[in-house]
Amino acid sequence: MSPRLREAIPDDAEAIAAVAADAWWAAASSALTADAVRTALSDLYDEAFLREVAAEAAAEEEFRFLVAVDGAGGEDGKNEAGGEEGEVVGFASAAREWADEAELFTLYVDPDHWDEGIGTALLEALSSWAADRGAERLVCSALADNTVAVAFLESRGFERTREVEAEVGGESVPEYEFELSLSG
User: Fold this and answer.
1) Residue from 120, 135, 123 nearest 183 by CA
2) Class of domain 4-135
3) Largest CA distance in the chain
Protein backbone atom coordinates (compact mmCIF):
# COMPACT_ATOMS: atom_id res chain seq x y z
CA MET A 1 0.00 0.00 0.00
CA SER A 2 1.22 3.45 -0.83
CA PRO A 3 -0.45 5.74 1.69
CA ARG A 4 -1.46 9.26 0.87
CA LEU A 5 -0.34 11.67 3.56
CA ARG A 6 -2.08 14.94 4.27
CA GLU A 7 -2.50 17.45 7.06
CA ALA A 8 -4.95 16.39 9.74
CA ILE A 9 -8.16 18.39 9.88
CA PRO A 10 -10.63 18.71 12.76
CA ASP A 11 -13.07 16.38 10.99
CA ASP A 12 -10.47 13.58 11.28
CA ALA A 13 -10.77 13.51 15.09
CA GLU A 14 -13.08 10.49 15.30
CA ALA A 15 -10.94 8.43 12.91
CA ILE A 16 -7.71 9.44 14.68
CA ALA A 17 -9.19 8.42 18.04
CA ALA A 18 -10.19 5.04 16.56
CA VAL A 19 -6.71 4.41 15.14
CA ALA A 20 -5.15 5.37 18.49
CA ALA A 21 -7.46 3.01 20.39
CA ASP A 22 -6.78 0.08 18.07
CA ALA A 23 -3.02 0.67 18.17
CA TRP A 24 -2.91 1.09 21.95
CA TRP A 25 -4.89 -2.11 22.54
CA ALA A 26 -2.69 -4.02 20.10
CA ALA A 27 0.70 -2.74 21.29
CA ALA A 28 0.59 -0.84 24.59
CA SER A 29 -1.63 -3.33 26.42
CA SER A 30 1.49 -5.46 26.92
CA ALA A 31 2.95 -2.61 28.97
CA LEU A 32 -0.16 -1.42 30.82
CA THR A 33 -3.24 -2.77 32.55
CA ALA A 34 -6.56 -2.54 30.73
CA ASP A 35 -7.66 0.23 33.13
CA ALA A 36 -4.52 2.22 32.36
CA VAL A 37 -5.06 1.85 28.59
CA ARG A 38 -8.67 3.05 28.93
CA THR A 39 -7.58 6.00 31.08
CA ALA A 40 -4.74 6.96 28.74
CA LEU A 41 -6.98 6.81 25.69
CA SER A 42 -9.61 8.94 27.44
CA ASP A 43 -6.99 11.47 28.56
CA LEU A 44 -4.95 11.65 25.36
CA TYR A 45 -7.36 10.97 22.51
CA ASP A 46 -10.54 12.79 23.38
CA GLU A 47 -12.19 13.81 20.09
CA ALA A 48 -12.75 17.44 21.14
CA PHE A 49 -9.07 17.71 22.08
CA LEU A 50 -8.00 16.14 18.77
CA ARG A 51 -10.13 18.66 16.86
CA GLU A 52 -8.33 21.48 18.68
CA VAL A 53 -4.91 19.97 18.01
CA ALA A 54 -5.65 19.60 14.29
CA ALA A 55 -6.81 23.22 14.10
CA GLU A 56 -3.74 24.39 16.05
CA ALA A 57 -1.36 22.46 13.80
CA ALA A 58 -2.86 24.10 10.73
CA ALA A 59 -2.12 27.52 12.23
CA GLU A 60 1.37 26.82 13.60
CA GLU A 61 4.46 26.70 11.40
CA GLU A 62 6.48 24.73 13.94
CA PHE A 63 3.85 22.02 14.53
CA ARG A 64 2.77 19.34 12.07
CA PHE A 65 -0.05 16.80 12.36
CA LEU A 66 -0.37 14.32 9.50
CA VAL A 67 -2.78 11.52 8.68
CA ALA A 68 -2.23 8.60 6.34
CA VAL A 69 -5.25 7.81 4.22
CA ASP A 70 -5.81 4.58 2.34
CA GLY A 71 -8.16 4.11 -0.53
CA ALA A 72 -8.57 5.71 -3.81
CA GLY A 73 -9.93 8.92 -5.04
CA GLY A 74 -8.42 10.95 -7.77
CA GLU A 75 -4.78 11.96 -7.83
CA ASP A 76 -5.62 14.68 -5.35
CA GLY A 77 -7.42 12.18 -3.08
CA LYS A 78 -10.83 13.74 -3.74
CA ASN A 79 -13.97 12.06 -4.97
CA GLU A 80 -16.13 13.46 -7.76
CA ALA A 81 -18.04 15.62 -5.28
CA GLY A 82 -14.79 17.13 -3.99
CA GLY A 83 -14.89 15.30 -0.64
CA GLU A 84 -12.04 13.29 0.84
CA GLU A 85 -11.91 9.61 -0.02
CA GLY A 86 -10.37 6.80 1.89
CA GLU A 87 -10.00 5.97 5.53
CA VAL A 88 -7.53 7.34 8.05
CA VAL A 89 -5.21 4.41 8.81
CA GLY A 90 -2.44 6.23 10.64
CA PHE A 91 -1.35 9.56 12.06
CA ALA A 92 1.71 11.30 13.43
CA SER A 93 2.53 14.65 14.96
CA ALA A 94 5.70 16.56 15.73
CA ALA A 95 6.84 20.02 16.72
CA ARG A 96 10.11 21.85 16.55
CA GLU A 97 10.74 22.45 20.24
CA TRP A 98 14.27 23.88 20.20
CA ALA A 99 16.46 25.37 17.50
CA ASP A 100 18.17 22.03 16.89
CA GLU A 101 15.49 19.55 17.98
CA ALA A 102 12.01 18.40 17.00
CA GLU A 103 9.86 16.11 19.10
CA LEU A 104 7.80 13.30 17.64
CA PHE A 105 4.67 13.32 19.81
CA THR A 106 2.62 10.60 18.13
CA LEU A 107 2.97 7.97 15.44
CA TYR A 108 0.24 5.33 15.27
CA VAL A 109 -0.97 3.01 12.55
CA ASP A 110 -4.10 0.86 12.57
CA PRO A 111 -2.86 -2.66 13.41
CA ASP A 112 -4.69 -4.02 10.34
CA HIS A 113 -2.21 -1.95 8.28
CA TRP A 114 1.04 -2.67 10.12
CA ASP A 115 3.96 -3.66 7.91
CA GLU A 116 2.59 -1.76 4.91
CA GLY A 117 5.05 1.14 5.14
CA ILE A 118 2.57 3.62 6.63
CA GLY A 119 4.53 4.27 9.82
CA THR A 120 7.73 4.65 7.84
CA ALA A 121 6.08 7.10 5.42
CA LEU A 122 4.76 9.20 8.32
CA LEU A 123 8.14 9.15 10.06
CA GLU A 124 10.02 10.10 6.89
CA ALA A 125 7.63 12.98 6.18
CA LEU A 126 8.03 14.41 9.68
CA SER A 127 11.80 13.84 9.70
CA SER A 128 12.13 15.73 6.41
CA TRP A 129 9.87 18.48 7.66
CA ALA A 130 11.96 18.85 10.85
CA ALA A 131 15.28 18.79 8.98
CA ASP A 132 13.98 21.45 6.57
CA ARG A 133 13.40 23.66 9.60
CA GLY A 134 16.95 23.20 10.84
CA ALA A 135 16.40 20.48 13.43
CA GLU A 136 19.43 18.24 13.81
CA ARG A 137 17.63 15.50 15.71
CA LEU A 138 14.19 14.04 16.29
CA VAL A 139 13.38 12.87 19.81
CA CYS A 140 10.55 10.75 21.14
CA SER A 141 9.65 8.26 23.84
CA ALA A 142 7.96 4.87 24.01
CA LEU A 143 6.89 2.59 26.81
CA ALA A 144 9.79 0.23 27.49
CA ASP A 145 7.48 -2.80 27.35
CA ASN A 146 5.80 -1.71 24.11
CA THR A 147 7.88 -4.05 21.97
CA VAL A 148 6.11 -2.96 18.77
CA ALA A 149 7.05 0.71 19.20
CA VAL A 150 10.57 0.00 20.47
CA ALA A 151 11.33 -2.36 17.57
CA PHE A 152 9.90 0.11 15.03
CA LEU A 153 11.94 3.04 16.33
CA GLU A 154 15.18 1.11 16.63
CA SER A 155 14.79 -0.39 13.16
CA ARG A 156 14.47 3.18 11.79
CA GLY A 157 17.74 4.33 13.33
CA PHE A 158 16.57 5.77 16.66
CA GLU A 159 18.95 5.25 19.55
CA ARG A 160 17.86 4.86 23.15
CA THR A 161 19.26 7.72 25.18
CA ARG A 162 17.87 6.81 28.60
CA GLU A 163 15.16 5.08 30.59
CA VAL A 164 12.82 7.09 32.80
CA GLU A 165 9.69 6.45 34.83
CA ALA A 166 6.55 7.89 33.30
CA GLU A 167 2.97 8.07 34.46
CA VAL A 168 0.58 6.70 31.87
CA GLY A 169 -3.07 6.11 32.57
CA GLY A 170 -2.45 6.48 36.29
CA GLU A 171 0.35 3.88 36.37
CA SER A 172 4.08 4.41 36.78
CA VAL A 173 5.88 2.56 33.98
CA PRO A 174 9.37 2.51 32.47
CA GLU A 175 9.73 4.51 29.28
CA TYR A 176 12.62 4.80 26.85
CA GLU A 177 13.66 8.13 25.38
CA PHE A 178 14.99 7.96 21.83
CA GLU A 179 16.91 10.22 19.47
CA LEU A 180 17.37 10.11 15.70
CA SER A 181 20.07 12.18 14.00
CA LEU A 182 18.66 14.14 11.07
CA SER A 183 22.01 15.22 9.70
CA GLY A 184 23.85 13.20 7.10
Assistant:
1) 135
2) alpha beta
3) 50
